[in-house]
Amino acid sequence: MLRLLRAGCMHGLHRSSPSDRVREHPRPGHVPLQVACPRKLRNICGRTKYWSSTAKAEEVIWSRRSGARFEPVLRLIAARGGIRATAAPPRRHLMLPISGFRHYELYDHSTSTWRLTREQAARLIYAHGPCLIGLFVTSDYYSGWWSGSGCDDDDADPVLYRGFSKDPVQRRERQLVDPYAGNHAAVCYMYEFVGDELHLRLLDNQDSHGPRLWVEYEAIDRVATLSVDPVDPSNWAY
């Protein structure tokens, strides 16, 4: 569910560099915040409409059938002041604010070329990660953690998803025969170069722990980077 991944990405950004993200943090290196269940955000996305340039009509931001896209959800989160978070004890509701985002379509279908090289993509993740990524997945994407070989927190795990064709026709045909095929989103928090290949480490949301998977850069269709504002630590409960 894309809204959960956006929440996780924002949580990761606020935690990734406390000295940069938090003003006068009383406990350096520790951010005692957890993202609250974004059920309310999901419900609002299910009621709020936006203009879809693809469909040439108004659509709800999120639906069970078609899911959601990056930009309308991120705009809604920004307009509402961020993602709700908790600090305990006692339980209190705070907001993890978002100040902006940038969306990158990585593949140019008109020329069949990449808009960002592997090196440029790695620099983007290094400077602005963790970030949201969008990709087309098939049952092969899930096979690693279904078998147990990719469903752990071991970042040295060798399982790698190499993606599927960028051709829209081939993707539609695959969806007719593969019930797990379709557009998907995850949080990218790590990368490494293996020879000439760029491998991205993703945190998915199939269960409360992920899973975490490696994917090849060429499997990715789009990336969204988020900017977050510092959180006032005087509102935290210790």
Please tag this protein with its features.
Cathepsin B, Chain A, single chain, three-stranded antiparallel sheet, alpha+beta, seven-stranded mixed sheet
Describe the structure.
- There is one protein chain.
- The chain is α+β, with helices and mostly antiparallel strands.
- It has a single domain, classed as Cathepsin B, Chain A (Alpha-Beta Complex).
- It has seven helices and 16 strands.
- It has a seven-stranded mixed sheet with strand order 8-16-11-13-14-15-12, sandwiched between helices. Strands 1-6-7 form a three-stranded antiparallel sheet, with helices on one face.
- Strand 4 and strand 5 form a beta hairpin.
- The radius of gyration is 18 Å and the shape is globular.
- The N terminus is likely disordered.
Rounded Rg = 18 Å
Low-confidence stretches: 1-11, 18-29
- Report, as a whole number of angstroms, the end-to-end distance: 31 Å
- As for the number of domains, it is 1
- Oligomeric status: single chain
Indicate the mean pLDDT: 77
Number of H/I helices:
7
Helix content: 25-40%
Beta-strand segment tally: 16
Strand content: 35-45%
In N-to-C order, the SSE pattern is: HHEHEEEEHEEEEEHEHEHEEEE
Main β sheet profile = 7 strands, mixed
What characteristic shape results from the CA principal axes? Answer: globular
Strand order in space, largest sheet:
8-16-11-13-14-15-12
Indicate the CATH topology: Cathepsin B, Chain A
By CATH reckoning, the class would read Alpha Beta
Structural class: alpha+beta
CATH architecture identity: Alpha-Beta Complex
